[in-house]
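Researcher: Next entry in the queue.
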Amino acid sequence: MVFCFICILIIIVLLEIFTGAAFFIFRSRTALVQMNSRINTQVRTAVYKYSPKDRHAINRMQEKFRCCGADTYTDWSRSVGWRNHEAVPDSCCPEKRKGCGHDKKKAHRKGCISALKLFLLKNLVWVGGVCIALGITEVFGVVVGVCRILDIKRKNYENVD
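Model: Structure for this entry, 161 residues:
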């Protein structure tokens, strides 16, 4: 009975470790292939439309990731929601001040799609690392528990009533 329980625990823990390892091995294939086209479409559409409901999110993304536009800062010259095609939003500027977006040369050059993908890929690596670490910790816990059970059985403690 105890042996079956231990086997099931070991199988579950090994599956966790293999899942974490799979994240590391296939992270570039699985994550980017599945999310690539969706991220591209969503970010390009959001920048192109620049609707009032999305403006705060787009500006925060540009500030956080230090990027401008979807692919590059020139995306703002084609945006229907952004009226001033000779400038970029102030959130594209490295230093925050009102009206800084009028000088496109001082705006961030890289687009937000590549910055967002890099961020997601880095965090996927952390998820895989945490899975592996938890799996190893659980294996250690199972081994210690089994050793403790065997030690108790070997000493043949008597019941005290």
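Model: The mean pLDDT is 82.
Researcher: Noted, moving on.
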